[in-house]
């Protein structure tokens, strides 16, 4: 024969066996059930509590509020009696009958052992500390790594460009950065964010040339739970959502597939984004900065870049001049690279300085940086010579050295520039346009230099 003759008897035995306290009161606040663990917390026997008003037993009881509002209160820290100094974590849960009407309240005392509570508190503190660490790391990874100070160069073109950055940064319209490879487009994007009112928000950078075409949509827009086979079960937040309240930097935007261009345009127009596999739009607030080394006009003509997207992203344009058009910045940048290497005591030979000034630097600042690092590593002694540079960077022969003895560096630079122009002009058969393109300078600039050095196109 079963030891349990009634369901209520079985329920009482089960509840009395629990290590946590359980109490039930009806709509009149009368205690109708209390297990031994709960009674122990009140320093009473269960039979002494049955039929009592809970608000009299527990002076600060929240039973009236729970039974009035019908809403549970979970994880509340409280003291159950005037003589009980131990804090207890309590859940207060409204109970409803079969018709959904309130019938009473269950009070559940979860922790009554101070050591257990201390362990839980310590664990929560540790988790909070760990969470804050992750937050700081994420914030640091989404913070700008560069500012205007990071952009080297004080030539007239660079001063004008930096002033543009300061002006554009205060406005929230999109900015399109144009410049050759290695010119520093990423630095300018970071500086725009750092100087803007959004500086405390995230800076999310995406290299459009580095994302596989089949992953572009999910990477940029995110995806919902179960959006496709192999998707993470909880879905994924997209880079656009990550940029909320900050700046989204799309580097090499010219590499973005046409179908993604169309979807990006919709995001910019609606200021909302739908994850892949979802119909729910999420509002997003970000400032767009885009960059490319491609000829956008040619792409528009070829139909590989959407015209409507182009007009949406080019409210402001920053055009970074190539290094060869701001020769005044070459030597300061080279010396800065040495200082960053801890090699401030090194110097460049006059011939090396002249050669650096004469070289076209098609890879711009990045190429100059790498060349100086190479030369500083390969040098012998404290003077960096022309031959210390990579062989495909600076010419080591045919440099005019007649002015070296007199120590006239300006003459060395001028003569070197003249030699290089004559050589390239001859190689191009006297064609000024092709020579200008090869030297990465404007035709007008080349004509000025031809007149300056008395170079004849026919004599080239």
From TrEMBL:
Gene3D superfamilies xrefs: 1.10.8.60, Homeodomain-like (1.10.10.60), P-loop containing nucleotide triphosphate hydrolases (3.40.50.300), PAS domain (3.30.450.20)
Biological processes annotated in GO: regulation of DNA-templated transcription
GO MF annotation terms: ATP binding; sequence-specific DNA binding
Entry-linked PANTHER family: PTS-DEPENDENT DIHYDROXYACETONE KINASE OPERON REGULATORY PROTEIN-RELATED, TRANSCRIPTIONAL REGULATORY PROTEIN
Protein name per its UniProtKB record: Fis family transcriptional regulator
Keywords from the UniProt entry: ATP-binding, DNA-binding, Nucleotide-binding, Transcription, Transcription regulation
Sigma-54 factor interaction domain location: 151-377
Domain PAS: 7-51
């Amino acid at each position: 024969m079963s030891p349990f003759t009634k369901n209520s008897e079985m329920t009482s035995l089960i509840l009395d066996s629990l290590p946590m306290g359980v109490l039930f009161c009806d709509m009149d606040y009368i205690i109708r059930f209390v297990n031994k663990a709960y009674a122990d917390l009140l320093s009473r026997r269960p039979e002494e509590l049955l039929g009592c008003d809970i608000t009299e037993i527990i002076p600060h009881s929240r039973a009236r509020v729970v039974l009035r509002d019908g809403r549970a209160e979970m994880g509340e820290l409280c003291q159950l009696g005037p003589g009980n100094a131990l804090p207890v974590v309590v859940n207060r849960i409204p109970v409803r009958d079969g018709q959904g009407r309130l019938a009473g309240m269950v009070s559940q005392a979860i922790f009554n052992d101070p050591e257990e509570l201390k362990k839980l508190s310590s664990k929560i503190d540790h988790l909070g500390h760990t969470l804050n660490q992750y937050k700081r790391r994420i914030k640091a990874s989404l913070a700008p790594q560069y500012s205007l100070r990071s952009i080297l160069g004080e030539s007239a073109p660079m001063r004008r460009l930096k002033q543009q950055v300061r002006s554009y940064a205060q406005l929230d319209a999109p900015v399109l950065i144009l410049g050759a490879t290695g010119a520093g487009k990423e630095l300018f994007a970071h500086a725009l964010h750092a100087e803007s009112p959004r500086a405390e928000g995230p800076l999310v950078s995406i290299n459009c040339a580095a994302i596989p075409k089949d992953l572009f949509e999910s990477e940029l827009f995110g995806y919902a739970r179960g959006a496709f086979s192999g998707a993470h079960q909880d879905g994924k937040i997209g880079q656009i959502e990550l940029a909320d309240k900050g700046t989204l930097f799309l580097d090499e935007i010219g590499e973005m597939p046409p179908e993604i261009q169309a979807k990006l345009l919709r995001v910019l127009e609606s200021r909302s984004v739908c994850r892949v596999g979802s119909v729910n739009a999420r509002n997003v607030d970000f400032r767009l900065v885009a960059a490319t080394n491609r000829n956008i006009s040619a792409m528009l003509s070829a139909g590989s870049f959407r015209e409507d997207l182009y007009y949406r992203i080019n409210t402001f344009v920053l055009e970074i001049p190539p290094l060869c058009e701001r020769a005044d910045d070459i030597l300061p940048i080279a010396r800065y690279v040495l200082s960053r290497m801890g090699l401030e005591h090194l110097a460049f030979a006059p011939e090396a300085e002249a050669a650096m000034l004469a070289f076209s630097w098609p890879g711009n600042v990045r190429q100059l940086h790498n060349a100086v690092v190479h030369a500083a590593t390969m040098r012998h002694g404290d003077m960096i010579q022309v031959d210390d540079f990579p062989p495909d960077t600076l010419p080591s022969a045919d440099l005019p050295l007649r002015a070296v003895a007199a120590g006239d560096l300006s003459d060395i630079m001028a003569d070197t520039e003249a030699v290089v122009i004559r050589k390239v002009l001859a190689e191009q058969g006297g064609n000024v346009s092709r020579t200008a393109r090869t030297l990465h300078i404007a035709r007008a600039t080349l004509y000025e230099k031809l007149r300056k050095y008395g170079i004849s196109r026919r004599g080239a």
